[in-house]
Every structure is written in C-alpha cells, then in structure tokens.
C-alpha cells in the first residue's frame, strides 16, 4: 500500500495516507519529515522509536518537562524516555500540536461513546497492524504503544486541568516539519475517528514527505 502511493518528488519521497491507514518509515539522523494536513481538521497520531534500539521511544513526560510547555510547535524538541533528543520541529504552519490526548482505541470508543463503537477503526489498531505487518522482526507489541503526538489535533487544557477534544486549529495545507536527531522509526496513524470533533467528523488524507538535510 505504501509503495503504491509513493511518488518521486524531485529528490524527495512523498506519500498520501488515507484516514484509517498508517505510515511507517525510518528517518535517518539529519533527514527531515513533513506531515501535511491536506484538507484541514485532521489528526495524525504518531509514535517515535529509536530505530537502532526501539525500546527507547518518545516520552511526552520528558518532552513537556524539558520544554516547560504543554503543546508542541516550532522549536520543540521531542525527548525520549531515556532523556535524549529524538527530533526537533523545525517548521510549523499550524502552530500547535497535542501530546496529552493519547490515541483512539476500541476500548476508548466503547467507554466514551457506545458499546457498538468497539469495532470501528482506531489508531491503536492501525499501529498494531503496521508493527505486525512491517516490523514483526523487531518484536514490538501492544505494550510498546506508549506516548504519542497528535499532530494538528486541538486538545485544550481547561483551567480545572481537564482535557477536551475540540474542532481543529489546523486548516487545509498546513504542515509540520521535524528533523531527526537520531535514527528514528516514525509510525503515523492517520486517525479514522468519527465520534469526536478531532477530525471534524470527516477524516481526510494527509501527505508525508521526507528528505535529507544537513545538521548545522
Ligand atoms: Zn485516532
């Protein structure tokens, strides 16, 4: 599926990912990945692993503590559970990304919405499918689905400290670019959620591109 969608774009590789599908690629240190919200109001639920030692992975706790801010934007550095910098957001036309809301699952659909929502497509199922189909050799399983970033997703923190899912801060064509500071395995679920406004009740495609860059 990923191969079918791949197009040459100059020296870059580019993919279009439909809602409910995944994208799993290794980004070498120095490479940049761009995620584009093609139609706006979409959520791209993304996991990051150290490609050379995948039991090291993105940590929301360490990232928030290090940057002393709840949201991610240009200048944010994503920190691993071992305290190492994994990637830096080098450009961002959306302005704000969530890392508190987690990802949708059959279980959360059931608890939040209704019992019959359990079998709807979900980000956690997309991640598991990707790891099983593409990376079974490294042995990542359900227990390795830890913290994620929700690019383009609007999850404001209320004055009382609660979380709400709101209509998006993103719009058509808005994008975020991350430069890898180590070899990183990037696993995106383009969210198929239909039960809350994170996708505007209309999940739409995203585009992903990657290219090589020089680290200063
Ligand atoms: Zn989702």
Give your account of this protein's structure:
By secondary structure, this protein is α+β, with helices and mostly antiparallel strands. The chain has helices spanning 2-5, 60-67, 106-112, 123-134; strands spanning 7-9, 12-17, 22-27, 31-37, 44-50, 77-79, 85-92, 149-151, 174-180, 184-190, 206-212. The strands form 2 sheets. It has a 7-stranded antiparallel sheet. Strands 3-10-5-8 form a 4-stranded antiparallel sheet, with helices on one face. The radius of gyration is 16 Å and the shape is globular. The termini are far apart. The chain binds zinc ion. Zinc ion (ZN) binds at residues 45, 103-104, 122-123, 191, 193.
Summed over residues and divided by their number, the pLDDT gives a mean of 89
Give the bound compounds: zinc ion
**How much of the residues is beta strand, in percent?**
25-35%
Our count of domains comes out at: 1
Q: Mind telling me the C-alpha Rg?
A: 16 Å
Cross-sheet strand order for the largest sheet: 1-2-11-4-9-7-6
Helicity range = 10-25%
- Overall 3D shape: globular
Number of strands: 11
Q: Which stretches are low in confidence, meaning pLDDT under 50 for 5 or more residues running?
A: 1-10
For the biggest sheet, the summary is: 7 strands, antiparallel
Total helices: the number is 4
Task: Report the span from N to C terminus.
Answer: 35 Å
Encode the helix/strand succession as letters: HEEEEEHEEHHEEEE
Which structural category fits the helices and strands?
alpha+beta
């Amino acid at each position: 599926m990923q191969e079918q969608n791949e197009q040459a774009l100059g020296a870059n590789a580019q993919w279009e990912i439909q809602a409910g599908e995944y994208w799993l690629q290794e980004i070498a240190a120095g490479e940049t990945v761009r995620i584009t919200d093609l139609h706006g109001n979409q959520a791209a639920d993304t996991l990051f692993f150290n490609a050379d030692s995948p039991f090291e992975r993105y940590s929301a706790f360490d990232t928030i503590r290090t940057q002393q801010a709840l949201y991610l934007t240009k200048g944010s550095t994503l920190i691993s559970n071992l305290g190492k910098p994994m990637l830096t957001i080098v450009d961002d036309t959306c302005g704000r990304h969530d890392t508190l809301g987690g990802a949708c699952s059959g279980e959360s659909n059931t608890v939040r919405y209704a019992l019959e929502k359990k079998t709807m497509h979900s980000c956690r199922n997309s991640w598991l499918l990707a790891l099983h189909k593409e990376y079974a050799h490294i042995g990542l399983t359900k227990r390795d689905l830890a913290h994620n970033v929700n690019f383009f997703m609007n999850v404001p923190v209320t004055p009382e400290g609660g979380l709400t899912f709101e209509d998006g801060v993103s719009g058509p064509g808005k994008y975020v670019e991350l430069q890898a500071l180590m070899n990183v395995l990037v696993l995106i679920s383009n969210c198929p959620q239909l039960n809350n406004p994170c996708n505007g009740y209309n999940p739409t495609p995203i585009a992903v591109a990657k290219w090589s860059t020089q680290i200063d």
